[in-house]
Amino acid sequence: MADQEQAVLKKLRVEPGEKIRLRDRNPRDKSLFGDEQETKAATAALAKDIDTLQDRLYAEGARALLVILQGTDTSGKDGTIRSVFNATGPLGVSVHAFGPPSRLELEHDYLWRVHAAAPRRGTIGIFNRSHYEDVLIGKVHKLAPEKVVEQRYDQINAFEKMLAENGTTILKFMLHISKDEQKERLQERLDDPAKHWKFNPGDLEDREHWDEYQDAYEIMLNRCSTKWAPWHIIPADRKWVRNAAIATIVKATLEEMDPQYPEVSWKPGDFKIT
Amino acid sequence: MADQEQAVLKKLRVEPGEKIRLRDRNPRDKSLFGDEQETKAATAALAKDIDTLQDRLYAEGARALLVILQGTDTSGKDGTIRSVFNATGPLGVSVHAFGPPSRLELEHDYLWRVHAAAPRRGTIGIFNRSHYEDVLIGKVHKLAPEKVVEQRYDQINAFEKMLAENGTTILKFMLHISKDEQKERLQERLDDPAKHWKFNPGDLEDREHWDEYQDAYEIMLNRCSTKWAPWHIIPADRKWVRNAAIATIVKATLEEMDPQYPEVSWKPGDFKIT
């Protein structure tokens, strides 16, 4: 693994058992990367590398990569997907956005709909929000009794371990933005008529619970960063830093997976096409 | 609609009730487009227009576009998706490839798995193969009794009509390649070790049924091109012509759909972000 990749992982990955404090992480940090324009160009190159590696993953057809994106409103989940995965395109990459559960989904356990959306072998699946909402909004807004939420951390770890043991590599990214940055981004949605449809008055209510959400994120990061499904805390106030960090980690991970073109059981000379 | 768009539609769309003969359609035809390099540049621009229109479709959140790709092996279904939809990316575009039905799928009617994969409102869904396999391979290889296959054309028309009436615009593209072109493309897969994994000895068996398949395609085109879900016969021997034709039709269709940013029920002044 290249030095830069190691530096990014060392700084952003939450090691299993490590106790992090979210307030110690600076959402505006850009120290991992150099010049903005050069970094953007490097990210575009990484996106192409990811495309090539995804081709091999597809050809191999045996394993999957699951990318989980979490973060408060306006933290840039959609923008990340565009920047890191548009070069790969919709062939072999699927995005699943988790909103409030439907009535049918509520009639099952909270992991039911998540499991159903797990990526097929050979593909990259992206979760825009995920089962972690059940220990975030679920905890902050007390959508389930405390004891029930408490059990979920271990349940999630076990669920993700099962996925990993069955061929799905998992990467989890928390897009960490500051309260000031969110204010700016929400204000933009109010100021720009083309962005009005993105503004949801309910986001303001969630903003009032900012500190509780930060606490819930911190618990989640400390309890659910595992060897088989590590969390990364991404400084996301600067979009170019966010994109560069995630592209670096995704590319390094696919490279470690090292998918192989499958052996074929025939020789080209076996066939004559008439 | 621009003149060029009208010319493409007039030449490639199968009008309801029209009786086409597939052998009258030249898979190498390039008369709709001019210079190759200019056409490629125009296609890239169309792909960006499609991205912009898809954003509006997503914002509107009320309707979907379903793109159905059919064609023999090597006809370029994957290549089409890359060329026309990579600018849009996986956010808002989902691809569903239909292979041989699973055991669970066989325990249901043939449209069951297709309906389950229909695109969500606000998105573009792409079917790489589809329920039309049930009147193609199903007919040629007699996977179902003749009488059963015979009923399917009307069933499919009714199914697609229901989707259309419920907000899904449908475009169907038959990627029409010549037998010679297929020979070249299969040979490439044998000659290039990096393409070996794409070569499926079973494709050769299907190639022996070339004429029967062409007949089955012709029946499908004549019986299932409807006002609400038209077929287009795409000259696909030349990849750049294929991509240009499909990008033109997709873009014109999205423009006709004319998705709108939704009205919001508030005024920017209603909120103060603290």
UniProtKB/TrEMBL annotation, chains A, B:
Q: Does the keyword Transferase apply?
A: yes
Q: Could you tell me the keywords of this UniProt record?
A: ATP synthesis, Kinase, Transferase
One GO molecular-function entry: polyphosphate kinase activity
Domain spans labelled Polyphosphate kinase-2-related: 36-260
Q: Does the keyword Mitochondrion apply?
A: no
Which terms does the UniProt entry file under GO BP?
Answer: ATP biosynthetic process; polyphosphate metabolic process
Q: Which reaction does it catalyse?
A: [phosphate](n) + ATP = [phosphate](n+1) + ADP
Superkingdom of source: Bacteria
Give the matching Pfam families: PPK2 (PF03976)
Looking up InterPro entries in the UniProt record yields: P-loop_NTPase, Polyphosphate_phosphotransfera, PPK2-rel_1, PPK2-related
Family affiliation: Belongs to the polyphosphate kinase 2 (PPK2) family. Class I subfamily.
Which PANTHER family does the annotation name? Answer: POLYPHOSPHATE:AMP PHOSPHOTRANSFERASE, POLYPHOSPHATE:AMP PHOSPHOTRANSFERASE-RELATED
- In Swiss-Prot or TrEMBL terms, this protein is called Polyphosphate kinase 2 family protein
